[in-house]
Design a protein that fits this description.
Blueprint: H1 2-20, H2 29-59, E1 67-71, H3 72-89, E2 93-96, E3 104-108, H4 109-125, E4 132-140, E5 143-150, H5 184-194, E6 198-203, E7 209-216
Parallel strand pairs: 2-4
Antiparallel strand pairs: 1-3, 4-5, 5-7, 6-7
Helix pairs in contact: 1-2, 2-5, 3-4, 4-5
Length: 221
């Protein structure tokens, strides 16, 4: 399934890029705009396919975790670096609070970054211009706690748990511009639990949200 879905999507993107490079002749302004839209749609659809396939792997228990001692500072900076341009483009204030440089967690570095990027991207997506998104961490009770807070639309009380279920979105009528599968939070919680951690949320409608990721600290030498 992975091959059958990804191969034609990658071909669409590749041929669009070749046309944009004018390999087959000049491209006028309108044609270039159409090619941009084709590429944008291709990347979006490929992202949706990847989410579904990732969730399928998690559900079947075929995901490999490369557990190691991961410096928290590196994880924060890697995730923030990927999301900061989105925040700037959306007219948001984005802040990352420094934490203990020696703090380490026991996790898969790539998957920890995946969770943080997903939480930060969601915060940016559902926070309007002039809003604020922040990321901070603290160490207590044998774990590192990552807090992603936004000043966005918030989540109704009756949706606080269901948003972690697969294919659930808080307000589908408000997310047409950024359509998704509704799998990001389900995948993130499953990954966190597989690394002996947890993922929870506190929110009030119209008052923003705070997602808290807990990951065990690395054992002391």
């Amino acid at each position: 399934m992975s091959h059958e879905l990804r191969t034609p999507l990658n071909a669409i993107g590749g041929y669009a890029e070749l046309l944009e490079m004018e390999i087959r002749g000049p491209v006028n302004h309108d044609q270039r705009e159409y090619l941009r839209r084709i590429q944008q749609s291709q990347r979006h659809l490929l992202g949706l396919v990847n989410e579904v396939l990732n969730y399928a792997r998690i559900e079947t228990g075929t995901v490999h975790y490369d557990m190691a001692d991961v410096p928290v500072v590196e994880a924060l900076h890697a995730a923030a670096g990927m999301v900061a341009p989105l925040a700037r483009a959306g007219g948001l204030r984005f802040h990352v609070q420094a934490c203990d440089a020696d703090l380490q967690v026991r996790a898969d570095a790539e998957k920890l970054r995946q969770i943080l990027v997903n939480l930060l991207s969601n915060a940016v997506k559902f926070t309007g211009p002039g809003g604020r998104v922040s990321l901070r961490c603290e160490a207590r009770d044998g774990s590192a706690w990552f807090h992603v807070r936004d000043t966005g639309m918030g989540i109704p009380a009756d949706k606080l748990e269901s948003i972690f279920e697969p294919f659930v979105q808080v307000r589908s009528d408000l997310t047409r511009e950024h359509e998704g599968t509704g799998l990001g939070l389900a995948i993130s919680r499953s990954i966190a639990q597989a690394m002996d951690g947890s993922l929870a949320v506190e929110s009030r409608k119209g008052r923003g949200s705070t997602f808290t990721l807990r990951i065990p600290l690395a054992p002391a030498p």
